C-alpha cells in the first residue's frame, strides 16, 4: 500500500465500497458488520478536532498578542464570510429556479426518512431567538461545550485564553510552549488516524449503498444533479474569481488539497481534514496566526457548500408541493436562510436543521424534507468537499488582505509538491 498515495488508496476504497454495498444491498446482517468500521473512523476524527482547534487558536492569538490587531482580523474575516455565504445562497436559489428539481416528482413512490430528531433540534434552536443565540457564544462551562463539539463557545474561550497568555508576558511562555507541544502532538495523532482513512471510507460508502441502493437515487436524481452542478459551478467560477483576486489559482489549490477534498467527499465530513488543511495552508504561505483563527471560525460561519444545498432544498420542497414562490418571497427566503444558517452553527446535522427551521418560518410543509432524508448523505458529500475548499481559500484571502501572505514560501511548497510527485 505504501506505493500508493492516500488519495489513490481512498479512491480504491471508494470503488470497493460501492461494489460491496451493491452486493449486500438490503442485507441488514452485512450492514451491521461493516458499519462499526466507519463509525470508529468518524469517532477518531471527532476525537482530534477539538484539541487541535483549541491549541491552534490559543497559539495563534497569543502569537498576535494585540487585541486591536485581532479584532481587525476578526471583523474582516466575518465580513468576508457573510459576503461569500450570501452569494452561495443566492446561487442556490437561482439554480433551483433554473433546474426546477422538485417539479413533477411522484411523492407516493419516495421513501420517507425519520426527521423527528432534527425537528426537535430545529424547534428548540428557533425558540432561542437571536438574543439567546448571542448568549450561547459565551460558554458557562467550557468542558461541556467541548464534550458537545460546540465550536462557537470554544472559539470564544480559546481567543480569550490566548489573549490572557499574551497579557501575562514571560509567565505565559510555558503555557504557550505547552499548547505548541499539544498542537504538534495532535498533528502526529492526525497522521496516524489518516492511515485508517481508506478503511473508514470503504465502510461508510458500502453501508450507504447497501442501505439505500441506486434505486433510491432515481426519483430524486434531478435534485442530486442540481446540487452537484451548482456546487461545482460555485467552486470553479465563484471561488475561482475569488482565488484570482487573492493572487492564486483555484486549480492550484485543488491540486494542493487533492487528498483532503477526496477524503471529505467520501466521508461526507469536513471535520476529517481540518488539521491537514491548517497545516497545508501554513506551508502554502499563510501565517500560523491567520490560519489558526480563520479556518476553525470558517467551520462555523463559512459553509458555502451547505448554503447552496440549504437554498436548493428549501425551494425544492416548495416545487414538490406545487407552491409558487414569488420573487419577493424568494428574497425573504434568502434573508431567513442568512439568519437561520448562522443560528444553527455548531448544531449536529446543521444543514438539515437549517432547512427545517427555514421551511417552518416560510410556512412550507416540513414533511417535504423527510422525502430527501434518504439521499442526504450523497448531497452531504459534495457540500463537505466545497466547505473545505472555501475555508482553505478564506485563509489565503485573509492573509493577502492583511498583507502577510508569503509568496516565496508558497512557491517553495509548490516546488516541493511537484518534486515529491516526480520522485
Describe the structure.
The structure is a single chain. It is built from 19 helices and no strands. The protein is mainly alpha-helical. It has one domain (6-422): Orthogonal Bundle (Proton glutamate symport protein), CATH 1.10.3860. The longest helix has 37 residues, at 28-64. The mean pLDDT is 84.
Which key phrases capture this entry?
423 residues, mainly alpha, Proton glutamate symport protein, 19 helices, transport, Na-dicarboxylate_symporter, cell membrane
Question: Strand portion, in percent?
Answer: under 5%
What is the residue-mean pLDDT, rounded to a whole number? 84
CATH topology: Proton glutamate symport protein
The global form is: globular
Proper CATH architecture: Orthogonal Bundle
Subcellular location: Cell membrane
Keywords: Cell membrane, Membrane, Symport, Transmembrane, Transmembrane helix, Transport
GO molecular function: symporter activity
Main location: membrane
Write the layout of secondary structure elements.
Elements: H1 6-23, H2 28-64, H3 67-99, H4 116-136, H5 142-147, H6 151-167, H7 173-194, H8 197-212, H9 221-245, H10 250-256, H11 258-267, H12 274-283, H13 288-301, H14 304-320, H15 327-343, H16 350-362, H17 367-370, H18 376-401, H19 407-422
Helix pairs in contact: 1-8, 1-11, 2-6, 2-7, 2-8, 2-13, 3-9, 3-13, 3-14, 3-15, 4-16, 9-14, 9-18, 11-18, 12-13, 12-18, 13-18, 14-15, 14-16, 14-18, 15-16
